[in-house]
Amino acid sequence: MKKIILIVLMSLASVGCGNTRRFDPSPGDSPNAADETPIVARYEGGVISRREADRAFALRPGNPDDASVAERLEQAARDLAWRRMLVEKHRASIEADPRWTFQQKNLERRLAVKIVELHLTEEATVDDAFVEKIVQDRIKKLEDAVSLRVRHIYVRADRTMDANEKEESRDRIEDLARRIRNGENFAELAGAYSDSETAANGGLIPGLTRGFSHPAFERAAFALKPGEVSDIVETPNGYHIIKLEERFEPKEPDFEKIAAWVRGEQLRVSTAALRDELIKKLRSTVEVEKLWDSDGLHPDPETGALLKVQGLVVTTADELESVFPGFRLRTDLAIDQLAALRDAELLRLEAERRGWIEQPSTALEQATEESIEHFAMTSEFESIVDAIPTADLEEFARRHPRHLERPATVDVRIIFLPFPEKGDPYDVFLVAEDLVKQARAGADFAVLARDQSAIAADHGGYLGEIKIRDLAAYGMEFVRTVTSLRPSEISDPVRVTGRKVGGGPKTLKNGFLIVRIEDRRPQKMLSMPEDEEEVRRIYGKVHRDQLLAADRDSLLKAAGFTWVGNL
After folding, report:
1. Which helix (H) or strand (E) holds 82?
2. Which contacts (CB < 8 Å, 24+ apart) does range 278-282 have?
3. What is the pTM of this model?
4. By CB neighbour count within 10 A (0-12 exposed, 13-18 middle, 19+ buried), where does 417 fall?
5. Mean pLDDT, rounded, of the chain
6. How far apart are CA 523 and CA 410, in angstroms?
């Protein structure tokens, strides 16, 4: 269990650009005790060992054809040295930053939550009967996925025909069957004598699957081996002769892997249920003060606190506003984050009480260093962008006006109520109509969405800031509704057809939609000097790679970086 926990904790480290463990060279520029491989690079304040360069090289993206392995290895070492220099350059200011403190606390909570979940997994249960059912369902789907390439000859003999006509059809099909047995070409006979529209292609059905033709026809076709011809097959519409040309079998999956995956999902669901049950219990036993409700946030007027869980105090002034920018404009997001923070802290306290936290210092140290590297890179880039000369920004605005076009956008909230699988859709319309009345009477639309909407409920129905030019992707009903409303207006219930919502897994399909417009922003062309800060931000985004590359080269040159390695 300890080994598994350590592996999971290591995986929690935020994605960085390689191994960022702090490296302190010992006297004589030899690698530290944990790394006895040769030194391949030196710079003022540190060295890079061959093992470290190899690790950075392995994590460095790129096409091997772009440069030789030796050149790419040196570039990986240069990047690694530069990142370490940035960490040392910004470490003091970062460690004094409330965002950093909050980030570290969150990291410790995430590690603790994972430990709790791993322990709860040992108590989780798996329904073997359910696992077997899923596997059997997959086997059945596999059988249904078999397809055939067949040719057939069809002679009509349906209920619109009298007995004599049906007898003539029987004589025709028997004559054709005899001619096939005597060696005549099946496709030519089908083309000349079949009553099917497939006669034009010699009776060819290129992809016959189960469930799309008469059962008697399917039984006969799927019983054949390639090259075989069936006896006469009778269906309510007439007579058939079938020849199987090719059988396409799907690749048989590894059913043991399927069963293992299903068991894993069962464990995950069971563990989540145990975790939620534990959180519910802890909420009633641990002292918790939450300063929010369905009406919004209500911070302590003296301290600004929004959440207190024993020793943990979360305030608006430092943690949340710095880590979740703009949360004041998104009350639903703030509430979601605060609730998740509360539950994570409860689990951390419980893990500490049960003695499950065993100080995984290596994992925590690596995660901490990778996190501080991310902050250092961000701080460096911010300082680079702040130092861009105004003249460069003016030249950028003149030469690249397309980058300065801020498109028209609209902020949208929705409530989506799907039709029931069984029942009258009119009942759903009545519910939608009542929600519209409540919202127009002053009820909080976000709260109604959180309680009722089948889409974006976790965010109070908020779909985000949508570009006007992208509205069509949501369907014409959505476009007509959004364009007809002014900010703060709420639409009547709108019946919608099947459309994708924002690229997510949910769809606006078969249901009633209620829309509220939060805000509209017209199209605008940014200009200098009125919009200098935004132009500066866009300039930095467009030239990020070049700016960082120039910064890296400058700092490494100043530090006397020297590559001494070889392959």
Report:
1. helix 69-95
2. 278/116, 278/120, 278/347, 278/350, 279/343, 279/346, 279/347, 282/346, 282/347, 282/349, 282/350
3. 0.55
4. buried
5. 81
6. 11
